[in-house]
């Protein structure tokens, strides 16, 4: 199998089979992200398998690939669903700011401090969603006017900071916050989440690009695949509606719980 030297990656090399697997992972991640978020659960661990890659390089390259997918899914949702810009605007703005701050902390704060907390939150989210089968079927907003905007801005800031710092599951967190916190149905929540997720990816890249952490050749190759997966996923979600998005949401949250639970156990045993 041929070996490729990746542009802007120094001595980092990758064989052809690994590159193919990474592209396939990016395709799947784009689809998952477009439907309900959580594509980082697939894409980031795949990047960490590249020999010689650092965690910061993997995180930065993941953001480059992801922003290509979130751009097309956000545009597709905007045209077909028409998300509420009163929510999207303040949430995306604070998410951008939070992601820049989170990215600046990414190389300084050990991820193991956050993983157990996130695991507990996700288990609670899964139980809450399954126990309330009507949750997210229809939109019933809990606030209007400035109260709604401030709540959206708070969601953007908190989750944006998390995305810049760690990342996996960001879109999923946006969706559950919009559904359970603001009262949106799953489909419009996914549409809004894509806009905010685009902003968090952009915010992280604002920090990572000058830092020199992005592996451009690999990130662009994966980004094309992520773009294709996101386009297919967004169109499927729009066609099938909130019930379909809810099912995918529960599956993705379950996968996140398994992945993070495994990480916690490994840390305890290690």
UniProtKB/TrEMBL annotation:
Q: How does it sit in the membrane?
A: Multi-pass membrane protein
* Signal peptide from the UniProt entry: none
**Membrane spanning stretches:** 12-32, 88-106, 113-130, 150-166, 173-193, 205-231, 243-262
| Compartments reported by the entry | Cell membrane
InterPro entries, per database record: TM_pro_TauE-like (IPR002781), TSUP (IPR052017)
Q: Which Pfam families match?
A: TauE
Q: Which GO terms describe its cellular component?
A: plasma membrane
Q: Which UniProt keywords apply?
A: Cell membrane, Membrane, Transmembrane, Transmembrane helix, Transport
What PANTHER family does the record tag this protein with? MEMBRANE TRANSPORTER PROTEIN YFCA-RELATED, TRANSMEMBRANE PROTEIN YFCA
User: What protein family is recorded?
Assistant: Belongs to the 4-toluene sulfonate uptake permease (TSUP) (TC 2.A.102) family.
| Protein name as catalogued | Probable membrane transporter protein
Organism the protein comes from: Cellulosimicrobium arenosum
């Amino acid at each position: 199998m041929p070996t490729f030297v990746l542009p802007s990656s120094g001595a980092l090399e990758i064989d052809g089979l690994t590159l193919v697997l990474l592209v396939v992972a990016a395709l799947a991640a784009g689809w998952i992200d477009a439907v309900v978020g959580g594509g980082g659960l697939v894409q980031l661990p795949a990047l960490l398998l590249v020999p010689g890659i650092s965690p910061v390089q993997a995180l930065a390259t993941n953001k480059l690939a992801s922003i290509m997918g979130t751009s097309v899914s956000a545009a597709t949702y905007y045209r077909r669903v028409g998300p509420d810009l009163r929510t999207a605007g303040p949430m995306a703005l604070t998410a951008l700011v939070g992601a820049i701050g989170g990215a600046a902390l990414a190389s300084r704060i050990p991820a193991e401090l956050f993983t157990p907390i996130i695991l507990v939150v996700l288990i609670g989210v899964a139980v809450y969603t399954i126990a309330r089968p009507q949750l997210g079927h229809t939109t019933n907003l809990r606030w209007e006017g400035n109260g709604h905007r401030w709540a959206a801005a708070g969601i953007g800031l908190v989750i944006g900071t998390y995305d810049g710092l760690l990342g996996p599951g960001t879109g999923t967190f946006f969706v559950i916050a919009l559904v359970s916190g603001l009262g949106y149905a799953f489909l419009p929540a996914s549409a809004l989440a894509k806009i905010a997720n685009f902003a968090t990816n952009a915010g992280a890249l604002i920090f990572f690009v000058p830092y020199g952490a992005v592996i451009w050749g690999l990130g662009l190759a994966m980004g094309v695949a992520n773009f294709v997966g996101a386009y297919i996923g967004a169109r499927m979600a729009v066609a099938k509606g909130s019930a379909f998005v809810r099912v995918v949401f529960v599956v993705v949250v379950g996968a996140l719980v398994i992945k993070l639970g495994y990480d916690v156990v490994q840390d305890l045993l290690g």
